[in-house]
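retry 2 of 3: previous attempt timed out while embedding pyridoxal-5'-phosphate. Reduced batch size to 1 and resubmitted. Inputs unchanged:
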Amino acid sequence: MTSIAENIAAVSSAIREQELAYGRRPNSVCLLAVSKRHSCASIRAARAAGQRDFGENYVSEALEKMQQLPDLDAIWHFIGPIQSNKTASIATFFDWVHGLDRLKIAERLSRQRPSEREPLNVCIQVNLSRERSKSGVDAAQTRELAAQIMELPNLRLRGLMAIPAPQADPELQRIVFRELKQLFDELATELEQSRVADLDTLSMGMSGDYPAAIAEGSTLVRVGTAIFGRRRD
Ligand SMILES: *Cc1c(COP(=O)(O)O)cnc(C)c1O
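retry 2 succeeded.
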């Protein structure tokens, strides 16, 4: 079995290779290590290997880890479905939220974001393939929600996120990623110029499809299994 440090090195070099192969700017794709259902020891090992961004799906599990790792100096991303009774914890303890798909939740997060902290970075989750989950807005609703989020003082809209249905063929994987990239580009041209500056994130690609996502313009890949191994459920 390879170590976590070796896995991070392997995924990172695969990312750099894809950047080169598809004319992407070097180091323009961020690696988010998805540590849900993995131990604090695994997170520490990843941090020691230079990994700084971590993704978690469950609020209580994440808060427990943060408490046990107070000196980690990590950037925490909430990537799971957002329940309205958990927004206060998410707004208080996370740096990013990737799965935003409702104005009500956005308003709560903005209201509950502590005033001494930077605005919470958020991505709108878009449901393109409509297969794997019920989360995410339709492509057609994206622009309206984006405009509404931009009115909220304590949120900073950074971009779009999607979780396409698993698909083994890389050419087929690319079709959905291409759709999200197109939607992202349209959004960037339609929004007021002054507000587009923060729009720099396309959160797409997981262990099974991140090379295809990078080929189509991903700026952030969310990788769990390829770094930490199989999850204990
Ligand atoms: C679990 C999860 C991941 C990581 O999945 P792997 O296949 O283990 O890389 C990425 N994104 C989201 C939203 C997840 O829930």
